[in-house]
Amino acid sequence: MSEEKAGRSVGKKLVVLLIIVFLALAAAAYFFGAYYFSSHFLPGSRVNGFNCSYMTVPEAEELLSAKAEAFVLEIHTRGNGVEGISAKEIGLHYVSDGSVKELMKKQDRYKWFLAFNQNKSYEVERSIEYDKEKLAQAVRQLDCMQEENNIPPADAYIKETAAGFEIVPETEGTTLKRKAVQQLIAKAMSTGTSSVNLEKAGCYLAPKVYQDDKNLVKECRQINKLTSVVITYDFADRTERVDKDLIKTWLVKNKKGNYVLDREKVAAFVNELGYKYDTFGCTRTFLTYDGREKTITGGDYGWAIDQEGETEALMKAIQNGKTQVREPVYAYEGWSRASNDIGDTYVEIDLTNQRMLFYKDWLLMVDTPVVTGSPDVLGNETPEGCFAIDGMKSPAVLTGEGYAQAVTYWMPFAGNVGIHDASWRSDFGGSIYVFNGSHGCVNTPYDQAKIIYENIGIGAPVVVYK
């Protein structure tokens, strides 16, 4: 029993001795490492991009010097281009100024055992020298810096095509920011960076507007919506077209930056329509029953576009994207919208020959002598011009200064002047109007007035001439 206990005691002592030896060796290894790395770089140490692990300061400086003399900077340009500047071109060399020694002093050598998986990079700019003027000259001589090789950037923009409007993508270009390039290359030379990428470093001038710019996309959409409309004005035998080519000239930006219709330009177009197609009160050429060409002026018959109303209607039609065939909003309307707006149903009164004719759909229904206003009595002469029947009444009582006369058919066309039957007369035509004319009205045989009254309507043209 005592021998067994003695054996156990020896074993324990042996284990304790081994632990003490191991701890002593570990302590010795630790302090040796701490001492060693007081003059050597820790594992994973890179100075100016070069691996200096386990090197002394002189060894590291010798490496840096050798690498500096052989250094060539790769300059990657847009479009996969590559250029280079060598140390020899700019007189680049390593200068020992204590920077590497300072780096070594700053490393935590007491944690050297944790450094085997580290990757520590240092840059010592002061240890590299070069001729700044030679570097500037080398940079200026790069192909990418030549004016003839520089394409300026261009913004994305909206372009008109046959189908509408589309966004043309921006042009990146190849124009460099010269100062930024100089600074980037100088820093790379100082730190030993082996390559630089001018595009990634943001050295190129950039467009201000790209194809995915929200405002540009919005503007293109607005323009396409407004210009995709086709509006055709129908003037019977003539048409006017409002389409993309015209609408695009009416577009302006409002204060919010949105494309809208310029009301003044739309109004100007509607005004042009009025000049071209309005006939209200205008001079006309009229072919008489006996083949004479008469110039008719005055009167209130014809067409006149409502300028305000049509401007508003046209703008709404475009804004709503409604392609359509339309008539303008009219302030005054005639019976025919053709070039000859008198059309095929009208009354023709020849004052000189005291003759009145009525055509309906080109069919002559009335050809009768009449008595018109007295030309020698002030205010009684029947007015000339092209008028519109503006009322119809049967029976009616005509009143004036000193008279009141009942008639069966009354069709006024110029205020108190109109066509009516005159049962008190037994004769019509000839020169009766000279010495026994009316107060301005067209006195008509009863049966002929009846035919006209029953076949005409309000708004029908009445052409009066001498």
Automatic annotation (TrEMBL):
Pathway listed: Cell wall biogenesis; peptidoglycan biosynthesis
Keyword match Transferase: yes
Gene Ontology, cellular component aspect: extracellular region
Organism: Candidatus Blautia faecigallinarum
Residue ranges of coiled coil: none
GO MF term list: peptidoglycan L,D-transpeptidase activity; transferase activity
Keyword list, A-Z: Cell shape, Cell wall biogenesis/degradation, Membrane, Peptidoglycan synthesis, Transferase, Transmembrane, Transmembrane helix
GO biological process: cell wall organization; peptidoglycan-protein cross-linking; regulation of cell shape
Active site: H420 (proton donor/acceptor), C441 (nucleophile)
Pfam families found in the cross-reference section: PG_binding_4, YkuD
Transmembrane stretches, start-end: 14-37
Residues of the L,D-TPase catalytic domain: 345-465
Name of the protein this chain belongs to: L,D-transpeptidase/peptidoglycan binding protein
